[in-house]
Amino acid sequence: EAGVVQSPRYKIIEKKQPVAFWCNPISGHNTLYWYLQNLGQGPELLIRYENEEAVDDSQLPKDRFSAERLKGVDSTLKIQPAELGDSAVYLCASSLTSGGTDTQYFGPGTRLTVL
Amino acid sequence: GDSVTQMEGPVTLSEEAFLTINCTYTATGYPSLFWYVQYPGEGLQLLLKATKADDKGSNKGFEATYRKETTSFHLEKGSVQVSDSAVYFCALSEGGTSYGKLTFGQGTILTVHP
């Protein structure tokens, strides 16, 4: 069974440029998560989807970040414009449901560097 | 709000040594507790979990017991191997509006030498 797929794995951009990250969750997983991981820190939730609905986006900086999950499968996270402080690893995860005990499966992440 | 605190790292051990990585948590309810591991160049993987007080999670020789009285979930392994070198994250998931949201500790880097 394929795991969570993310692309690109690495991205280098200049500040004020836009950037987008793509995630394909495990087949059949209804819940999808985007996490932000700063260097030397644990991941922090940005947004959680149940099917195509964003049910928790309270930590998403909506002035520059946006996300979508069309048809309840793939998801895209966008930053426009990027700032120096956005340099981090962006992780996507999926789980069968949003149950608190359900295992979340993580992708390898996209490492973003903003110059 | 919820929080997870892990012992300061990094941790460096010789092969076959005993491992303990401390984890304590703060939560308003009765969370589920998890240990995730991140090997170099790979994504986070669930190592073990416990969903209620006194439960013991175990996998690959690692164990952790959910201690409600001390709000702790310490990770232990009796004999580490070089292949255990990785970053270990303690995490919790609580109900209510945060249902499904994982709150992570800062991670502990483990290096095992031959």
Structure in words:
The complex is a heterodimer of chains A (115) and B (114). Chain A has strands at 5-7, 10-13, 19-24, 31-37, 44-50, 53-56, 65-68, 75-79, 88-95, 105-106, 110-114. By secondary structure, chain A is mainly beta. In chain A, strand 7 and strand 8 (75-79) form a beta hairpin. Chain A starts with a strand and ends with a strand. In chain A, 37% of the residues are buried. Chain B is an all-beta fold. In chain B, 0% of the residues lie in helices and 50% in strands. Chain B has strands at 3-6, 11-14, 19-21, 23-26, 32-38, 44-50, 56-59, 62-65, 75-77, 86-93, 102-104, 108-113.
Helix content of chain A: under 10%
- Biggest beta sheet attributes of chain A: 7 strands, mixed
Main beta-sheet annotation of chain B: 6 strands, mixed
Radius of gyration of chain B: 14 Å
- In whole angstroms, the N-to-C terminal distance of chain A is 37 Å
Distance between the termini of chain B: 41 Å
**Low-confidence residue ranges of chain B:** none
Assign the structural class of chain A, choosing from mainly alpha, mainly beta, alpha/beta, alpha+beta, or little secondary structure. Answer: mainly beta
Number of helices of chain A: 0
Structural class of chain B: mainly beta
Question: How are the elements arranged and paired?
Answer:
The complex is a heterodimer of chains A (115) and B (114).
Chain A lengths: L4 E3 L2 E4 L5 E6 L6 E7 L6 E7 L2 E4 L8 E4 L6 E5 L8 E8 L9 E2 L3 E5 L1
Parallel strand pairs in A: 2-11
Antiparallel strand pairs in A: 1-3, 3-8, 4-5, 4-9, 5-6, 7-8, 9-10, 9-11
Chain B lengths: L2 E4 L4 E4 L4 E3 L1 E4 L5 E7 L5 E7 L5 E4 L2 E4 L9 E3 L8 E8 L8 E3 L3 E6 L1
Parallel strand pairs in B: 2-12
Antiparallel strand pairs in B: 1-4, 3-9, 5-6, 5-10, 7-8, 8-9, 10-11, 10-12
Keywords for this structure?
heterodimer, A: about 120 residues, mainly beta, 7-stranded mixed sheet, 4-stranded antiparallel sheet, 11 strands, B: about 110 residues, 6-stranded mixed sheet, globular
